[in-house]
Amino acid sequence: MKIFVTGGAGFIGSAVIRHLIRDTEHSVVNVDKLTYAGNLESLLSVSDSNRYAFEKVDICDKSEVERVFAQYQPDIIMHLAAESHVDRSIDGPGAFIQTNIVGTYTLLEAARKHYSTLSDDAKKIFKFHHISTDEVYGDLEGPEDLFTEETSYAPSSPYSASKASSDHLVRAWNRTFGLPTLVTNCSNNYGPFHFPEKLIPLVTLNALAGKPLPIYGDGSQIRDWLYVEDHARALVKVATEGKIGETYNIGGHNEKTNLEVVKTICSILNELVPKEKKYEEQITFVADRPGHDLRYAIDASKIEEELSWKPQETFETGIRKTVEWYLANQNGWCQNVLNGSYQLERLGVN
To answer: Which of 159, 190, 279, 326 is catalytic?
Structure first.
């Protein structure tokens, strides 16, 4: 099949594309605007494949979106393009409203127009898979509570509110217009090629550079951590085998406080890159951010039972792989991101 991956130069999108090219026979069209978080270097291992194509397109640009639909005639849309950093959404929510809501609307309309032109057989294959987050649910109260596919939405940040809005749009296009859609909501992702503004790469690279390791509040916020390559496998599973109109929650079964995560990274670095002082001594606690949810945790039993997916990595194996990857790529991918040379001009793409 021919699969569109919007936001394919981002952290999760690039993992999905690497999985599709390496482990399947599908063709991929990477549709990405290449904002600060889009990095084509994350795709260098697969970008020379004859089953891979890249289109620098803003999903809010109606004419360009319609052009790529007409040119490539996709069978499946995997929609990952989004502004996704909570702190940035607090500082400047406008970009989140534009990309996450207006962009999703523009993509849905282009998909609906494309779907209307398909033969009956092609319509049986076509799917619009919208990738979302567990943050749309707000936070959990009891220590045993879990987000299920039926959990009510209660977003706390401009980011999560914009993703909740896009989720509702996708479901409405299914109910009202008959567009065959799927929605997935995932827990916190981590792994190789993660942009260094996020907790795990930020802490790893700050630790190595001798900088402070900032933790919001007292670090007691709990997240369910999902290794990005496990998530990529789950997304492709849903996109190709999921039931139209359904929602699937994807989690890693790895609940950890932010402080536990940081201390685990420090422990691994103490072992692999020892120095005179322990890395834990660089931990600093900073003022908590507004509206910071305390706990997220996913009930992923539906996707396990219906689609036979389970994460392969535990947090212990996944975090070690992640830290080792950042150590091995300090002078390549990481350096290019930190100094800005990963941007488009460096790669010679017009």
So the answer is: 159
- Is 246 considered catalytic here? no
| Residue burial 137-153, b: 16+ Cβ < 10 Å; e: rest | bbbbeeeeebbebebee
For the chain, the domains span 2-347
Q: What is the pLDDT of residues 182-236, one digit of tens each?
A: 999 999 999 999 988 789 999 999 999 999 998 989 999 898 999 999 999 999 9
223 closest CA partner among 309, 121, 292, 160: 292
pTM: 0.94
Q: One of 64, 75, 83, 134 is an active-site residue; which one?
A: 134
Domain 2-347 annotated CATH 3.40.718.10: no
Which pLDDT tens digit goes with each residue over 121-151?
A: 999 999 999 999 999 999 887 777 999 999 9
User: Is 121 one of the catalytic residues?
Assistant: no
Cα separation, 69 vs 27, whole angstroms: 14
Q: Clarify whether 135 is annotated catalytic.
A: yes
